[in-house]
Amino acid sequence: MLSKVAERMYWFSRYIERAENTARMVGVYDNLLFDLPRAINISWFNLVVINSSEDVFNARYTVQDEKNVVKLLLADSTNPNSMASSLQMARENVRTSRDVLPLPLWELINELCMYVAEHIRDGINRTNRHGFLDTVIKSCQQINGLLADNMSKDAAWQFIRLGRNLERADMASRILDAGITAQLSTTDIEQDIDPSQIIWGNVLRSCDGAMNFRRTMRVTVEATKVCDFLLHDKHFPRSISFCAEQIETAVSLLPACDIAELDKLKALLAQDNHELDESLSDYLNELQLSFANLHQEFGQCWFALE
Amino acid sequence: MSIDWTEYSTGNFYDELIADDHVPREPATRLVNYLGSMSTAEINKRKKMAESTIQEMGVSFTVYTEEGNIDRAWPFDIIPRTISATHWEKTAKGLKQRLKALNMFINDLYHDQNILNDGIIPADLVLKSKNFRPECVGVTPPHGVWANICGTDLVRDLDGQFYVLEDNLRVPSGVSYMLENREITKRVLPELFSEDSILPVNNYPAHLFDMLASLSPRDIPQPEIVVLTPGIFNSAYFEHAFLAQQIGAELVEGSDLIVEDDDCVYMKTISGLERVDVIYRRIDDEFLDPEVFREDSMLGVPGLMRAWKAGNVALANAPGAGVADDKVIYAYVPAIIRYYLNEEPLLPNVETFLCSDPEQRQYVLDNLDKLVVKPANESGGYGMLVGPHSTKKEQEQFAELITKSPRNYIGQPTLSLSTAPTLVGSTPEPRHLDLRPFILQGKKLYVTTGGLTRVAMKKGSLVVNSSQGGGSKDTWIVEEKD
User: Fold this and answer.
1) Distances B301 to B219, B295, B308 between C-alpha atoms, Å
2) What is the pLDDT of residue A184?
3) CA A154 centroid distance within chain
4) Which residue of A has its CA nearest to B250?
5) Please, which residues have CB within 8 angstroms of residue B264's CB and are 6 or more apart in sequence?
6) Could you tell me how many CB contacts below 8 A there are between chain A and chain B?
7) Residues of B near A (CB-CB distance < 8 A)?
8) B295 contact partners, CB below 8 Å, separation of at least 6
9) In chain B, which residues have pLDDT < 50?
10) Are residues B222 and B364 both part of a single domain?
11) Number of separate domains in chain B
């Protein structure tokens, strides 16, 4: 398989995953912020922080309100991480690799990009936002479903797996980090409504994991349990440990290459005594650095052949 | 409201579907009647369906404009163009005969040059052509075939006879649109496929694959075949990707390939370098190898010509094949067929005046308002003069160009290109069209069933190129009912 095609598979799946995650997060916030007590410090701008897009935001907007945040995250073509940009990039990668992907994928991604271009206003205005985001998420799932069912599980598939799981793990770590920041800034407030439950319920829903958490953990939603679940659960497809295992399997099925960072990541994930404080933030930071190193090593190993 | 065929006026042209007396021609009978039975609303619905199908299938081509490159949806007319199977069979024979002779001609030019020595064609005309590549002299590609994939443009004149307008032997494009047009039509007019016996076109990729595999220098069960594209910004990129997918080949760019010290071509893969056997190249000769041709080419592969000359890789089409699709050489194709095959040409040429010949040149200069003047080496319908549609000033410009470099121009009578009903709104109007069948030659010869029909969408226009506002139609080769 061509190195260049491998790289495109990897990026294609990262972008699809990114688009789906962005759509889900906006949807979760949309749902959440309507009935949240004023004192709880969760604002739309958190989404910009989670995506490390503060610079892009500040260059384009001044007011940190819902409209601007949603615009930046969903529609803004100058934001390379916006949902629309991600889908365009995913489409570009499919367009240039149609020879290794199932034929209907091209139609699906085309339809999705056309849908988003035509209905982007529905995403920005609140009235139809839910339906719009829902369609995008379902379309991304349809694409993943087509690949799961229809694509030969050859090298191209392994690169798709690498991209998807690395993107997913990275996003989970960012969402956890945002949860901790929110939690630490609300501990002093006494309320009838427990802000902790709202924050961590929100974290779970952002990872599409509320149901799974309840069934697996069988405990109240609270910070350390949610962290434990999203970091270490062996079965939940969006937990970081699960993603790491997927990455490890994919690497083992690809032409031999030394991905040294994998061992470091595994060692990091083996630690499990997290206190809910700054040290957890540092820990998540280390995880994110490890993801960045993995990305580097994949590139050197398979994509950068000269 | 529905289509009233008695309102359809064919004017002074041969119409592909409707005869002079408003009666459909035999192969179009069921199609014409069916369209006539549809309401305007139904026709508009089918048009919409075609448009959305094209968008969903992502069928596009790229147009270069001053504002940058635009990826445009493929312009398509839903009314197919029909040709009877018996007529097509004869035409296909003529096309095979033509390519076979042209390949013998090219092979001769790069070896003994018998045809020049025998004085059939003036040696100067060939050896001074910029498409004659001295770098290729002495090379014998697999099966002695240089042009493996040929797109020949046919037009029908007033007499209903097909004429060859030109042979494209370098990197002809359009075949993917032929295949997509059929897919679209099957979705838009499905009823007709059960009524008529319309011959399939979708066996082309299998034949293309077999042909390419037959060129492999290594006798192995699974030769490595790649499609070499200039990249995403090329107007035919859609087709390159489509064909690679259809034949299960890797789609590569120059930067994916490397020629090693053993003069073999390798591609850069995730497991290291892998040897390549056959390259279906979709980039022009000049860009193939910066060591031999244009030094500034970023699209090619340094050393590719070395590998090809050493016989370690097959290139389809072979470099230098373009020498035979020069429009000056075109005038000699009937002579070429007689010379190599000792047969009479089955398909006629359009009468051609060579400006390199003083007498013929004078005739062209005297009749610029009546003739079509074409440069000998351009493609895509650029830089040509359509006499009857030109201004005095344009004619003067061409007179000057011709006098300056006579070798580079030819003149042809303005043909009465045939028409076919094409929807303008929901009413059919006659529009001019041509036909580009594709012919393959490796170990065996193969002709597509029909080909790509291109339509000049503008009223009265004769320019069918998609880069200049042309559209296309599905082409039906219809078996006669017994």
Assistant:
1) 24, 11, 12
2) 79
3) 24
4) A99
5) B275, B276, B307, B312, B313
6) 66
7) 55-58, 227, 232, 241-242, 244-245, 248-253, 255-256, 267-272
8) none
9) none
10) no
11) 2
Closest residue to A155, CB basis, from B248, B250, B270 = B270
Residues B286 and B405 in one domain: no
Q: Tell me if the pTM is above 0.90.
A: no
DSSP structural state of residue B7: G
Q: Tell me the chain B residues in contact with residue A107 when contact means C-beta distances shorter than 8 Å.
A: 56-58
List b or e across B50-85, with b for residues whose CB sees 16 or more CB atoms inside 10 angstroms. bbebbbebbbbbbeeeeeeeeeeebbbbbbbbbbbb
Residue positions counted in chain A:
306
- Side chain identity at A31, as an amino acid letter? N
Co-location of B239 and B286 in the same domain: yes
Tokens for B359?
Answer: 């007498």
Of A2, A254, A255, the CB nearest to B252: A2
Tokens of B117: 């020595």
HSE of B197, CA atoms in CB hemisphere, 13 A = 8
Q: Is the pLDDT of residue A296 over 80?
A: yes
Q: State whether A107 and B251 contact (CB < 8 Å).
A: no
pLDDT one-digit tens code per residue, A189-198: 566 677 788 8
Residue % of chain A over a pLDDT of 90:
62
Note whether B382 and B245 are same-domain residues: no
> Among all residues of chain A, which has the CA nearest to that of B244?
A99
Residue with tokens 């495109």: A8
- Facing residues of B156 across strands? B162
Q: Structure tokens of B178?
A: 């032929």
Report which of B78, B28, B81 is spatially closest to residue B187, judged by C-alpha positions: B78
